Amino acid sequence: MTSIPLSKEVIEWVIPTPTLGDLSHNSTDIENDIDYLLNWLHPYFPPSLINQQQIQDNNWIQFNNSSHKLFNKVVEPSKRVKAAIRSCLKDDANQLEFVKLYNNSITIKLNSFFNHLTNSSNLTFLNYFNLIKIINGYFNSILQYLNMSPLSKDLFRRNLNSLFYNNLIKDDKSHFLPLLSNYLDESLYNGDTTSAGTNPPYSVASINEIIHTLSSINLINEVNHIMIQLSIKKIKLFIVENCSKVWNKYLLELINQYIQHKIYPNFLISLKYSTINIDANSYLYDLIKIAHDELVSLRIKEIYEIILNYPTSSIALYELYQCFSIKFNHSNYNQQQHNQLEDSNSSSTNLINDVSHLSNFSYLVNFSLKSQSYQRTKLVENFIKLSHEKILHSGANTVDVITTYIKTIKSFLIIDPKGVLLDKVVRPIRTYLKTREDIIIKIVHGLLEEDDSKNDLVELAQDLRKVDPPNKQQQTSIDDGLDLNWIPDPIDALPDFKKAKVTDIIESLISIFDSNEIFISEFTKLFGQRLINIHDYDVQKIETYLDLLKVRFGKDEFTSLDIMIKDIKGSKTMNQIIQNNMNGNLSHFHTSILSHLYWPTVIENLSDERDYFNVPSAIEQAFKSMSGQFNEQKSGRSLKFLPSLGSVKLQLEFKNNISKEFEVSPDKASIISLFNDQNEELSVEYISKTLNMPTYMVSSGLNFWVKEGVLIELTKSLYIVNDDDDDDEENNNLNTNNDLRLRSATTTGPSSATSRYEETKPFEDLYVLWPFIQILLENISMLTSSKILTLLKLRVPKETFDVQALSPSYFEEYLDWLIEQERLELQGSSFKLKN
Amino acid sequence: MKVKIIDWHGVSSWHWNLVSDNQNESEYVDELCGICRVAFDGTCPNCLYPGDDCPIVLGAGCSHNFHLHCIYKWLEQNSSKGLCPMCRQVFTYKESYPIVTEELTNLQNLIQGHKSVRESGREVGQEADGFEDDGDLQMSA
Predict the structure, then answer these.
(1) B87-100, pLDDT tens digit by residue?
(2) A802 occurs within a structural domain
(3) Any idea which architecture B13-141 has in CATH?
(4) Which among B4, B17, B50 is the nearest to A597, CB-wise?
(5) Which has more pLDDT, A227 or A750?
(6) What pLDDT was estimated at residue A440?
(7) How many CA atoms lie within 13 A of A719 on its CB side?
(8) Residues of A in contact with B99 (CB under 8 A)
């Protein structure tokens, strides 16, 4: 032989590979022995299969049925042959040489056989399997008779295995792997699911046999690979089917059961033949871990909805926490694998996709170890992304955002009690909340609303009322270096991580803003309103709230509120003292005495125009005497009355002995007080002047009383007490009276006019016109009487006064009267305002 | 119809009577303490509650008013020489309080102390100031 470095092909072309057939040409002593041996070995292939080589595709079923015949053992060699074998394969060298040559012969045969096989498709897995079994069985029995040394046997086997491997696995045209995978899938899983009682079409025994055979031709790695893929596929399917949108049931146990009873036993079958020598239980943990990972990825996708569904979804959240916190007991992982993992992590969300291409168990193990931190990151990222889409935009309601925020806090504390994830997740929400203008008001009202059913943010109120609020002392962080109980921050926490800042809901909301001041001022405002409206001077409830708030915000922040509460308490004692001194003369009047600098929200909004009107004289007297008393009690100080604040309890007694009680604001009380014992109608203008109150306030007050049925609106500006049972009749009477008077005025001559003149209140019916005349003349300084009348017809609303019905002569009389009253002046024939 | 007021819960605010000369109580002057620059109706820097807890003192010799605590602190210093920090006249106060509190007594003692220091100084031969004479007269009155 030559040792020229040529490629194998070239050599084989020049010198064909020697086969056993070549032996017969050697004329040696053992020529006869070899002949016998060769005869016995011929055709280097299971004879039963050689016959079948020509069969057509459609005959394979038949082949399948009759296959048991094909399993015939190789005919036991005769004694002569045995002798030949013994003589030919005397020593190791001969054996090795023999094996080499024999292998070459088999290679040719097998290759051509499988070539033929793969070209004809439609082979079922069992066909393949039987073929393998036949071939394998054939060569095994041959090997048995050859009596060779272990080394040669091993060589032979390895060669045979590699032949199988090349033809079944390596060959692109081979369908063997997909068929195997399908077969295992159907036999292992479908059988179980359809009917548990009846025997599955393929018994476990046959599966065992298949795997045993496959492992005997060293295909166990492939089988394992398929098993892993199958198991993962099954787990995935199971989780998608059973866990999607199911947040209120414990699922982990169910999953574990499923794996333990359905997946793992099948897994073990292949595992038994596996050469890897690891504690089998660890694979169970790995499978469970894979299932957990799959569940986690599912939950990552659902996280936003889960959180919105809190607290219904708290079980799902708790299980997520469990998935994150389970530590699988694998110690062997090093930097290299770490790096590998980072590569594979970088791309996809779905971990199982990454896992499924791994066939190596140890790799899988390490993967699961590292995936937790990856999943945590992914969870945070996905939640932030979703919350930006769903809630952190201008279309969302502030209360909704706060509610989501609260739910986020509670949910993520379940997932990660250390608060690290929460810290990361809430940052964007906090930044966003800071931009909402109404958030403070919402929070403050949420905190202090007493009626839970009206409170959109009940959690806040409940949290505030909690018996055991977080200790403020712990939150004001002592220097880490001095803290004896110092624990380092969790490893993946951001640098400015502060647990208390994010875990306590109220603290978390408050700390959105850099300063507490906004909250304090809002509290002051709210409490100011409440304190002003407290009529029995009982501040206990507010004090309780204030104490609760002090725990949260710090004791020194509420000076203003402290003073406010003290004011009210002081007012109570002061009122009692004064009441005693006055011997009950002031029983119907009492006052809260405020330190005006500390009630900014109450007092600063008062305006001279609106809020300093005249109260009924009795009340004014009462206040004066009270003020005098106060002066005696606290020398050097005096009281200033703030008429618009407070409230009044009234009793209205009507002529028909019906009395009604009202509790109204002081302005309304002052207005209605004017109607006390008043049978005549009163005009808005009159009330406004008497009370020193702007007309719109008077009007709205009057409207209130009209709505209550106490007053009747005669015209836009005239009101009278509704003092009769029959409202309508009263109303009509008044109207007809008015009409009559007008009509008489228009029809009667000057004589009757003069008689009017002598009345105590002449032209009373025309009073309403005066403001209009005044305005006209203010604007157009001089006008004749007819011009004034024409303009009045345009200006005066019909409801106020029907100018059309007014006779010009009567009107002129009225103007003359006005001149006499020195309100008007006559210049030529024109009238003007008297200066 | 009869309107009967059963219960009128009014609201009022208290103020120190600063301009006691014209006795017009309704007129309220929002003045600041000359020392702490906080309104009289507020508190001096050391107090929490206004009113009873942090009274004011009306100057008698001059027209300057202060929180009691503020002027007390000022007079405690020897360098103040018992003078009003605003106008450098001898500081005395109007005894408008019928009830003499402990704090007021202390203030009185301080003023007396300053007075005796001044007098002993004058005896030694220091020039007497006209204003101080006036102050002394008022004090003894």
Answers:
(1) 888 888 887 665 66
(2) yes
(3) 2-Layer Sandwich (3.30)
(4) B50
(5) A227
(6) 83
(7) 26
(8) 635
